[in-house]
Amino acid sequence: MAVLAAARLARILDKAGGELGLAHYRFLTLVAGGDERASRLAERLALGKPAVSATVGALVAQGLLARDDVAGDQRAIRLQLTDEGRSVLARTEAAMAARLCELVGGTDDPVATMNALVALGEAVDRDLAERRALGDRR
What span, in angstroms and rounded, lies between the C-alpha atoms of 128 and 24? Predict the structure, then answer.
């Protein structure tokens, strides 16, 4: 049941994002958080280089992302949000957060539910960090 609930929640948040789907939201959030290299994003999102290239291309075409060469590394590109990208990301996050708050508000204990979601997010971050340290790309 928990897996189904998580999958359904992801779909609801994807729809709530409006301008930005969940996949592009995750991508832009990582860029905004300081992951500026495409290779690093591929690793963090467990995506292949073709998928990252396609996503970067789409976000650049929409005017949400800019790419620059990395000095001293001809193969690397540095990514950064445009002003429009920051605006769309902020609106998307606000819409998703509002929808999540609506759903959490319908539980028996909204505070405990939100705390559990935050704790789950922290556990996911720890797991990803551990797997990265061990070279596990699952």
Answer: 19
Q: Which of 13, 40, 11, 9 has the alpha carbon at shortest distance from 27?
A: 40
pLDDT tens sequence across 70-127? 777 777 778 999 999 999 999 999 999 999 999 999 999 999 999 999 999 999 889 8
**CATH class of domain segment(s) 2-106:** mainly alpha
Nearest 10 degrees: CA dihedral of 19, 3, 29, 12?
20
The answer to whether 78 and 67 are in contact (CB under 8 A) is yes
Q: Which helix (H) or strand (E) holds 85?
A: helix 83-105
Which residues, in sequence order, are CB contacts of 68 under 8 Å at separation 6+?
A: 77, 78, 79, 80
User: Angle formed by the axes of helices 22-32 and 83-105, to 10°?
Assistant: 120
- 82 touches 65 (CB < 8 A): yes
- Sequence spans of domains, the chain: 2-106
